[in-house]
Amino acid sequence: MAEGTSKLGPIWPFLFITVACGAISGFHSLVAGGTTSKQISKESHVKPIAFGGMLLEGLLAIGVMIAVGCGIMFSDYVSIVFPTAAGVKANPILAFAAGVGGLMDKSLGIDPIYGTIFGILLVEGFVVTTLDTAVRLNRYLLEEVWQVIFKNVPAIMKSYLFNAFLCVFLMYILAYTNAFAAIWPIFGSANQLLASLALIAVSAWLAKRKKTTWFTVLPAIFMMVTTLYSLVSLLVTKYIPKNNVALSLVDILLIILAIGVIILAYKKWQELRKNGAAAGHAA
Predict the structure, then answer these.
(1) DSSP assignment, residue 102?
(2) Do residues 228 and 165 make contact, with C-beta atoms less than 8 angstroms apart?
(3) Could you list the residue range(s) of the whole structural domain that residue 263 is in?
(4) Which of 88, 90, 156, 157 has its CA 20 to 30 A from that of 123?
(5) Distance CA 73, CA 222 (A)
(6) CB-count burial class (<10 Å; 0-12, 13-18, 19+) for 245
């Protein structure tokens, strides 16, 4: 426990900004709002899709834990994911692939080389489908941004081809310049911050319709506190001491945006309370 904490930080809050997807994820809220909501036939289909997806992702996470825990020696895992040699970079994908190779060798008698290749393909398949979804979501967001910026949106900016190409081009720039490596450390915090903001938005929507809100408010508060604490911790202990200007600015911006949403949500809650009290007096 102490060794893991020294490398990754304390379990709270960093466990909760690292483990996403099957647990809670801001990216999934974008998927649900941008694509899933347009694909279902009726609202009653949402529960089995959402709950089923959560269970499957949880099952996938258990499978990954089994592969890493049983298919590769702990010392080998640490040397791959947390290398101590100078100039050697961490490679968690290789550690997972080697775990899959070892597990397939022990359980099915498949040569570890082929099993490792299969593990790499599993990760690549996940990455490809995720990037495909990300491009689609970015395209939707760009189409909405143009409507905010321009009173009369130019015809070319309404084209899905233009917006999709712009997304791919920007991703290419990030990959080619290796800029993604600089912003990746803060991705977990940004992702889970988005999840808490989505829960706040859902809570406001439910409150406005006078429906039960505690089941969204409680996780929203927990994730907001957890994410803000992680952002402050990363800023004070890592980004500022290392003079990482880019990540420091992004971190501060995320904190400001989060506080802004909290203030807006509180004002909306106060407004709903006043309207509810006024309606009660009128009755």
Answers:
(1) H
(2) no
(3) 184-274
(4) 88
(5) 35
(6) exposed
Predicted pLDDT of residue 103: 93
Q: Is residue 119 a part of any domain in this protein?
A: no
Provide block-wise average pLDDT over 10 residues at a time, the chain (283 residues).
63 79 79 79 86 85 89 89 81 90 92 92 86 85 90 90 92 79 76 87 84 89 90 88 86 89 82 66 54
How many other β-carbons are positioned within 10 Å of the β-carbon of residue 78?
15
Residue with tokens 């801001």: 26
DSSP type of residue 236: I
pTM, two decimals, is: 0.78
* Residue 126: predicted pLDDT: 83
Of 210, 182, 184, 232, nearest in space to 276 by CA: 210
200 within a domain of the structure (yes/no): yes
Token pair in block for residue 54: 């959560």
What's the CA gap between 141 and 110, in Å, rounded? Answer: 45
DSSP state of 23: S
What is the predicted pLDDT for the residue at 276? 63
Helix (H, G, I), strand (E, B) or coil at 244: coil
Cα separation of 203 and 18, whole Å?
Answer: 24
Residue 5 domain flag: no
Q: Are 115 and 104 in contact (CB under 8 A)?
A: yes
In a domain, 10, yes or no: no
Whole-number pLDDT of residue 274: 76
Between helices 112-149 and 160-176, what is the axis angle to 10°? Answer: 120
The answer to whether 107 touches 99, Cβ cutoff 8 Å, is no
Q: Please tell me the predicted confidence (pLDDT) of residue 83.
A: 85
Residue in the structure block whose two tokens are 């996780």 = 219
Q: Structurally, how many domains does the chain consist of? A: 1
